[in-house]
């Protein structure tokens, strides 16, 4: 991943545009994080069972899966800018709805609307970012997006903590309306993606936008030529999926990767952090909330480790390390819950292990799965492939969010954490068998290897072009 090494060369307008689009990532994080602190108060006010609490948490992911599914066709026909605008509007409506909900039904509908917004944002923002950022900072821009998600989660945990003293859960949920309005107004000022304009044959407008965003007319002209060349390859994802077994493999790999990310159990910690601190023996709301803030801060800081290492160590070693750390931590936590957490020494040990788990995730699967999902798809099927994997993220997220409390209630805390330990161990094996190393390999090279039928774990190899591989079906 490139770094922002030469800010002077990078048009300030571009940075502003990217920042605004990344604000969508912040909202994504805010909405994911906010429920952790608000849930205990909501449960008390509406007298909710564990199952109803799970519905409140997971209906957002259901909306997000649908939002991501609809975003592919929507951003292709309406454009990236209008899709983002709709996403921002849904963020505003959903946040206000949550804040004023006077019964469970309204709350669930509002969370569903927020989910739609998150789904639209999680598909459209990275797409817009990758299309508008100059090549030399494209990698940093995708990392910036993940960083904004983690900052959003942390900000939500912080505001929850501050508001928890009076149990102001409506404010916790409602306060997100403000950044949502900023996003809406901000997106109004954003230019349309030059790539989308070119796809719609609006070349003059595309040239205008590029002139605004690039340092010189020459740079703008060269980029427009490249864009024109690449949009000649029409997106024909579904057709390709039906007829080409190799594209089916990369689509399934994207889906598998996102399931792996979710089955680490990180999302459970993000949604139910105060509850986990309660199980660990921290009985006061204050202790639980501050513990949650520290968890969010750890998540932000450890994301920088991934940004620094991803292009030096490569994807696979970091993923293997991350899954191993997470498997061990989940195993230890399960054991600690099994023998019982008595005394402050045991409590702090449990918290330390939990934080190490978070570091394990944030330095590996957190950002890397998103990076890999955008790298492994061939150009003609990229929109379709990324839609499928983004949807898989939300479906898996929903399964995890909707089952955690039931698992704790039925099989108990130790077994639940051991189950996650086993799932992380399975992820190590899946990484070894299926995940390619894509460090320093051009996307064209990956595509060539994939379409020649190279095994998935080898599609990032330089020398695969020399091996005999079967002819693609399309
Ligand atoms: C994941 C979320 C997770 C978050 C934590 C994202 O990449 O998709 O499910 O909760 O990272 O930082």
From TrEMBL:
Presence of the UniProt keyword Metal-binding in the record: no
Pfam families in the record: Sugar_tr
Chief location of this protein within or outside the cell: membrane
Membrane disposition: Multi-pass membrane protein
Gene3D superfamilies: MFS general substrate transporter like domains
Gene Ontology molecular-function annotations: transmembrane transporter activity
Compartments in which it is found: Endomembrane system
Top-level taxon in the UniProt lineage: Bacteria
UniProt keyword annotation of Transmembrane helix present: yes
Keywords: Membrane, Transmembrane, Transmembrane helix, Transport
Residue intervals of the Major facilitator superfamily (MFS) profile domain: 17-439
Record-annotated membrane-spanning stretches: 15-43, 55-72, 84-102, 108-129, 141-159, 171-190, 252-273, 289-309, 321-341, 347-372, 384-405, 417-435
GO cellular component labels: plasma membrane
Family, as annotated: Belongs to the major facilitator superfamily. Sugar transporter (TC 2.A.1.1) family.
NCBIfam families: SP (TIGR00879)
UniProt protein name: SP family galactose:H+ symporter-like MFS transporter
Organism: Enterobacillus tribolii
